[in-house]
């Protein structure tokens, strides 16, 4: 029998007891359903590999820059804070935060673009759908099922990471036709816990990419003064510049930036719950738009940060040189392995997939350094 939680959840929260999994399992009295999901993700091979996968800087660039795993942990911390404030299912938000980037390739979005081009004739590649392949098919840890057999609520949040899904063609091509038939409603909204995980992702990567960009000297604090909210935050610390190191001041500014964005999400979400008359969980799922979001002014700030980072960081020559090399590695590995797949891959491990999808799964699962080392060996 499952141990009951003493935490009293909001009426808008997903219950600690799931409505089920794709394959039925016995309950445990030690953990609720979502704590089990979280622990399965933490113990997965795919999660450990995130330690050596690019966030912005290729993993070999330095020990102190974010990787996919540190980013996922930071998303989780922000999501737990927001979920706790609204008295929601903190375990579900944490689970989704930790799992959301499992499907990323080596070399970040450059790697994803390269792999998608390689797979253009075979259904394409999408890191969000690859996450679903990992948790439902590729992880191999249990006798009774493939994947991790996560709860339907966790799968719902991963599927609708960017909102309701209107076109299922890519899901059918990458996962298999009707994979979630009669189990997931693709067209309605997702839980507040999932919406919180999604916006926590934005908050984490915006603020921490700013910190990593400053640390790597791709831009200076003065460059941020053209963004009004950041200018206001930097001005608050003006008197500290002669007293403390620039590194410490930057960390304080990043903390303030996160606090500013989190506070905005709380106020805006409270307002939306009232305006949309959201009184129970069913109302959340039936809502036609996101409930957890930024205010219009903060959305504008968010867009300005993204635009700034794109110009000054993501497309910077020093970053592009390495990511372009990563892009070439992915494409070349795909072509080389395709000539003799059995030489590199244990094909028997993969079920019901064509050879191109198997190669895609193999490459997508690589860390930066594994891909680099393999490329050196076989090129």
What Rg is obtained from the alpha carbons, in whole angstroms? 21 Å
Arithmetic mean pLDDT: 93
Helix percent reads 55-70%
CATH H level, superfamily name of the largest domain: Hypothetical protein af1432
Kindly identify the CATH topology of the largest domain: Hypothetical protein af1432
Given the C-alpha coordinates, what overall shape results? Answer: globular
The termini sit apart by 56 Å
Describe the structure.
The structure is a single chain. The protein has 379 residues and is mainly α. It has two domains: 214 residues, Hypothetical protein af1432 (Orthogonal Bundle); 127 residues, Hypothetical protein af1432 (Orthogonal Bundle). 56% of the residues lie in helices and 0% in strands. It contains 16 helices and no strands. The relative contact order is 0.14.
Tell me briefly what this model is.
With 379 residues, the chain is mostly helical. The chain is 56% helix and 0% strand.
């Amino acid at each position: 029998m499952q141990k009951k939680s003493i935490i009293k959840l909001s009426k808008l929260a997903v219950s600690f007891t799931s409505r089920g999994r794709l394959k039925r399992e016995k309950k445990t009295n030690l953990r609720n359903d979502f704590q089990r999901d979280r622990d399965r993700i933490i113990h997965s091979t795919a999660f450990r590999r995130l330690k050596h996968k690019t966030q912005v800087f290729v993993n070999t660039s330095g020990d102190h820059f974010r990787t996919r795993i540190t980013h996922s942990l930071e998303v989780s911390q922000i999501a737990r804070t927001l979920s706790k404030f609204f008295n929601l299912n903190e375990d579900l938000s944490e689970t989704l935060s930790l799992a959301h980037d499992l499907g990323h390739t080596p070399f970040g979005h450059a790697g994803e673009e390269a792999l998608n081009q390689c797979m253009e004739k075979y259904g394409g590649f999408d890191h969000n759908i690859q996450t679903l392949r990992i948790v439902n098919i590729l992880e191999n840890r249990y006798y009774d099922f493939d994947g991790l057999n996560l709860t339907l609520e966790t799968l719902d949040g991963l599927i609708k990471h960017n909102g309701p899904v209107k076109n299922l063609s890519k899901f059918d091509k990458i996962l298999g036709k009707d994979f979630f038939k009669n189990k997931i409603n693709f067209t309605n909204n997702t839980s507040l816990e999932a919406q919180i995980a999604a916006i926590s992702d934005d908050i984490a990567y915006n603020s921490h990419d700013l910190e990593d960009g400053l640390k790597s000297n791709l831009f200076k604090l003065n460059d941020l003064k053209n963004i009004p909210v950041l200018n206001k935050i930097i001005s608050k610390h003006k008197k500290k510049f002669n007293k403390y190191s620039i590194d410490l001041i930057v960390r304080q500014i990043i903390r303030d930036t996160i606090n500013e964005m989190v506070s905005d999400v709380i106020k805006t979400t409270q307002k939306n719950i009232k305006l949309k008359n959201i009184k129970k969980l069913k109302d959340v799922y039936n809502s036609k738009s996101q409930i957890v979001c930024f205010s219009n002014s903060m959305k504008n700030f968010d867009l300005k940060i993204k635009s700034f980072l794109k110009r000054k960081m993501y497309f910077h020559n020093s970053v592009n040189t390495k990511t372009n090399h990563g892009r070439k590695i992915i494409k070349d590995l795909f072509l080389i392995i395709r000539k003799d797949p059995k030489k590199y891959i244990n094909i028997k491990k993969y079920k019901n997939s064509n050879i191109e999808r198997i190669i895609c799964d193999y490459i997508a699962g690589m860390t930066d350094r594994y891909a680099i080392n393999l490329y050196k060996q076989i090129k």
